[in-house]
């Protein structure tokens, strides 16, 4: 799996506070991250960060307008930090994006291509946000795709179920963390 990378997307303090339902999401994600490191699969963190004063947010963007009104996503705020339970280690790459997709307003594609990565393993919050948008764009960019269904989380469990059970399998392998760890074990 030398051509793969694990993307850990939008697992930031404020987002976890809103979405985490106490189902053990962070420990499962931590297992996936530790497994990737053990298998020498690069772990790339993706965070959403908007400029102070929000000159990069249009009032036509309903989601971001509501988020900044609620004080979310501003660069430098403690809530935009990656949650400490899944924090990067020295040498992990952190990419900042400006919209829903991990590719939007970021240098993610450049980082991936420079490293020869052509296959992505997607995790993150929310399934209906960053995971969906990144999956669609990565599919259009011809990346091989895997989604770790139980390392994705959404505030609406039914939306998560429909996306991971019906939509995502059209473009990606959808598996659980434990099955993926078994597949990549050295």
UniProtKB/TrEMBL annotation:
Alphabetized Gene3D superfamilies for the sequence: Isochorismatase-like
UniProt cross-references to InterPro entries, sorted A to Z: Isochorismatase-like_dom (IPR000868), Isochorismatase-like_hydrls (IPR050272), Isochorismatase-like_sf (IPR036380)
Domain spans labelled Isochorismatase-like: 4-179
Entry keywords, A to Z: Hydrolase
GO molecular function, one term: hydrolase activity
Lineage: superkingdom: Bacteria
Stored CDD domains: cysteine_hydrolases
Pfam family, one: Isochorismatase
Protein name stated in the entry: Cysteine hydrolase
